[in-house]
Design brief:
single chain, about 200 residues, alpha/beta, Rossmann fold, six-stranded mixed β-sheet, globular
């Protein structure tokens, strides 16, 4: 009984989970697109002025998934960089995206986050499972591939996880197909046309 009470008391006030910013159309690209970079900059205002994101004060910790040994998974960290700079916080990347359960255990047991706001930027494939590992029931539905502008806001009233999906309301430019291309994708397109 004591452990259950202690665990409930050490929860963060809220954990906000976001998807990384937009990615280029090139499947080999590992970094944010121009729109993704715009979203990353826009998140500074979301996390410093949005009522859902500031209810319990500014974030005290920023987490992103750790890049894989092949270099994939860089976008979550890149998405948080402008916010980290604004808040003077380090982006922590202790786990790869598949290790969401380990992250959830760490966040729910660290007394440094008790009553505070923690931000997590993750890959969309594992976001519903991460929310479930944090205690959200039932597990949220699969995150759609095309959705970049929503956030999971998880709070813990009376120690029970509650989920609210919130719109980020960040405006990113509509890029033309040519402008969306990374230099590598543009070079491939030119090469194909010349072949």
């Amino acid at each position: 009984m004591f452990l259950a009470v202690q665990s409930a008391l050490s929860h963060p006030a809220e954990i906000i989970i976001i998807r990384h910013g937009e990615k280029p159309d090139d499947p080999d690209a590992q970094h944010l697109s121009k729109q993704g970079e715009e979203r990353a900059r826009g998140l500074v205002e979301f996390f410093t002025k949005n009522a859902h994101a500031t209810k319990h004060g500014p974030p005290v910790a920023l987490f992103a998934s750790h890049p894989t040994h092949k270099g994939n998974g860089q976008r979550p960290r890149e998405t948080l960089q402008p916010l980290a700079k604004k808040l003077g916080l380090e982006i922590q990347t202790p786990f790869e995206s598949k290790d969401f359960t380990k992250l959830a255990q760490m966040l729910l047991s660290d007394p440094n986050y008790q009553g505070k706001t923690v931000v997590v930027c993750w890959v969309h494939e594992h976001m519903p499972s991460l929310a479930a590992a944090l205690g959200v029931t039932p597990e949220p539905p699969k995150w759609k591939d095309s959705v970049y502008d929503k956030a999971y806001v998880i709070t813990f009233p009376e120690g029970k996880a509650q989920l609210k999906v919130v719109a980020e309301k960040i405006k990113v430019s509509e890029l033309t197909p040519a402008a969306k291309q990374t230099p590598l994708a543009a070079a491939r397109l030119v090469w194909r046309r010349c072949s």
